[in-house]
Each structure stands twice: as structure tokens, then as C-alpha cells.
Amino acid sequence: MIVANGYLRTDGRKGIRNVVAVVYLVECAHHVARRVVDKADDDDVHLLGFPGCYPNDYSLRMMKALTTHPNVGGVVLISLGCEGFDRDGLAASIFESGRPVETVVIQEAGGTRSGIDVALAAVRRVQTEMQRLERRVPMQLSDLTIGTICGGSDGTSGIAANPAVGRAFDRLVDAGAICIFEETGEMIGCESAMAARAASPEIASAIDTSIGNAETYYRAMGYGSFSPGNADGGLSTLEEKSAGAYVKSGSRPINGVIRPTQAPDGPGLYLLDVVPDTPPKFGFPNISDNAEIVELMSCGAHLTLFTTGRGSVVGSAIAPVIKITGNPETYARMKEDMDIDAGRVMLGEATLDQVGDDIFNLVLAVAGGAQSKSEDLGHREFILNYKTIDAVGPACHPGSL
């Protein structure tokens, strides 16, 4: 089934969008980069950035993966000039991927206004080169990678929105797509059920280890994934929330456990483990929804299915976000932000399979160029912070990578 007329990249991957990424490499360059994006006045020019002044291997790997994401066609890097980020290494990685890239150093450009003017001209040159290189090709479902995450969960999430996404995931996996679910910190207690679906004993062991690490990390933090908003929404415990989060994965075999920046080479279902490898450190933030969307994108996700019971208004740079709510009151109140009303299941107006079909069809439509609600509203949220995490996942199914 042809689902889109995609953008062919030199590595053979295909994008559903053709974005220019304007990337600040330190917080000191953030204002200049944001003004460049504002002045470009183009929905296909997106802002990315790393706020830290000191280098971090995880952030460099993340930025290399994101600036060479299949939805990105060209890049402008904006540096203050004295930060620790390896801008030359990042630029070389982008150039080697076949994408046009330019670097602007504010200290050399002359300051704020001059830096904005120089960077804006660089954006225009990159866009011209992207047009010259543009090659459109048919995309099959097997070319798509889809991620899923939940945020602002309530008592309806595990009953309606999350299992409906699970139904859609089953259809997508059966059609040859790559599907990625995560939030190991919100699946504590579900490790046995997940391990039973593992495609190999090694993957089953990796699942158990990943959930155990998440439990250890949250215990050390003294703050888990259960929020006051979850309780206000009718959830009683982290275990109940975990069971609801888990069903987003559907019912197909789990082909591997991966880490941020690791893109599966083969079709199937994968668990993304984003929990840091070290105990909590000062400056290493707690896991957040937008950070996890970014990590899904670093693994190649073309778009993300975001389930929310309480309601959320976030989107993402680079890759579209589709929002699904299982709460009919939330849908009625926040219809302008919600793409799918899974609350119909709660009201007896639709089955999980029917809502799963709606999600599946919307994935095809958005992959084909239709805008999700967050895209239409101009949401381009992006978070990238310090972290210590292995580059490679603990286990994947032999033959899938």
C-alpha cells in the first residue's frame, strides 16, 4: 500500500516532511536561532537546540540522529563560538548524510542582529539546495516508523485511548511498519507480561532488566511517574497507571529493546528504554513527555501517537504528533487540540477496534501530508538535555538489526 509521496534520503530512508532544522548549540545562541525561525516565517523551518555549555556524548549522538532524521532535508547550525559542543563533528555528520548544512558562529558574525541576518541567509541557501536535491518517491507502510507515548493519563487512558492505540499498532506491525513504545518507568509491574511476548529469551531478559533499572532509578530519585494529576483523573496507583500504559503496545511479539538514537533496521515492535544508566545527578532532569518524543524521533519515528486523558497541547519539531484522548469530557473541552476521540468507547458509541481503525487511517493521512492538530496550531516543542545513556540497546531479535 502506497501511503505517501516521500522524500528520499541518500541512506535510503524516506521522510514524510522536508524540514530545515535551525539548531542552536548552546543556550547563548537560542535567541538568535529562534529569531531566525520567526523571520523565516515558514512552517518547514523548525527550531532544535541543546542548552548546555559543556559537552555530553548523549546529546551529541541525539543531535546527529535528529539532524539526519528522514524528515529533515537541511540544517543550519548556530553557535555562539566558545561552547563545548562539537559543532564541526556534527556538521561533518550532516554533510556525510547528503544534506546541505551551514554553520553560523555568532561571535564571528558580529553579534545578535548580524548573526540573525547571516543565519537567515544561510537558511535560504539551504532551502535552495534542498530544492535542487529533492527527490520524491512512493512510500509504503513498511517505510514508516511510528512511536507512541502517553501524558496526562487518567482513569480513561487504559480503558479507551491506550488500547485503541494498541489495536492500531497491531495493524501497523502486521503491515510491515516499525512501531516503538516506551515509558519503562510507567510499566513497572508489567515486565512479566512483556517478557512473555519477547521474540527471544535474550529479549525477555533485556525487558526484565530495563524495567528493573527504571524502578531503581525512580526509587533513587524519590519521585516516580505517578503525578497528582493522575490521581485527580481517577488513577489509584502506579501499578494501575502502568497497566494502562502497557496496552499501547498492542499484542504482537516484541522484537527488541533499544536505546535513544538506535534505529531498528527491521519491521516489528520495539521497546525503547530511555532511563539513564547512572543514578540521578544534578542537572539531569526527570523524564518528560517532550523529551521522550524527541528520543522516539532519534530512533527514526516519523510521527508519534500521544494519548492523554487529562489533556495536552504539545506537539513537536521535525515529526508530527497525533493526540488521542479516551476522556469524552476532555475531547469536548479541548477539541481544537485532540485528533482522535477515543472517549466514544467510554460512551458505548464505538469499539476499540473502530477507534484503532480511525488511528490507523489518520496515521496514513498524516504520513501522506495532512496536518495533525498540533502541526496546524504551530506547536514545535523540543527538549534536549544532559544524560548518560548507552548508545546501543541491550538486546534485539537476531535478524531484526
Mean pLDDT comes to 91
The fraction of residues assigned to DSSP E strands is 15-25%
> Tell me, what's the shape?
globular
Largest sheet: 8 strands, mixed
Tally of domains: 2
The tally of strands reads: 15
Q: In which order are the strands of the major sheet placed?
A: 14-13-12-8-9-11-10-15
Span between termini: 24 Å
Per DSSP, the total helix count is 15
Order of helices and strands: EEEHEHEHEHHEEHEHHHHEEHEEHEHHHE
Q: What descriptive keywords fit this protein?
A:
15 helices, single chain, eight-stranded mixed beta sheet, Rossmann fold, 401 residues, four-stranded parallel beta sheet, 15 strands, alpha/beta
Give your account of this protein's structure.
There is one protein chain. The chain has 2 domains: 115 residues, Rossmann fold, CATH 3.40.50; 257 residues, no CATH class. Helix content is 39%, strand content 18%. It has an 8-stranded mixed β-sheet with strand order 14-13-12-8-9-11-10-15, with helices on both faces. The protein has a 4-stranded parallel β-sheet with strand order 4-3-5-6, with helices on both faces. By secondary structure, the chain is an alpha/beta fold. α1 crosses α5, α2 crosses α11 and α6 crosses α14. The mean pLDDT is 91. The chain has 15 helices and 15 strands.
Question: Brief description of this entry?
Answer:
The chain is α/β, with parallel strands linked by helices. The chain has helices at residues 30-40, 57-67, 87-96, 106-109, 112-133, 157-174, 191-195, 201-221, 228-232, 238-246, 289-298, 328-333, 343-346, 352-367, 373-376, and strands at 2-8, 14-15, 19-24, 45-49, 72-79, 101-105, 136-140, 145-150, 178-181, 254-258, 268-272, 303-307, 321-325, 340-341, 395-396.
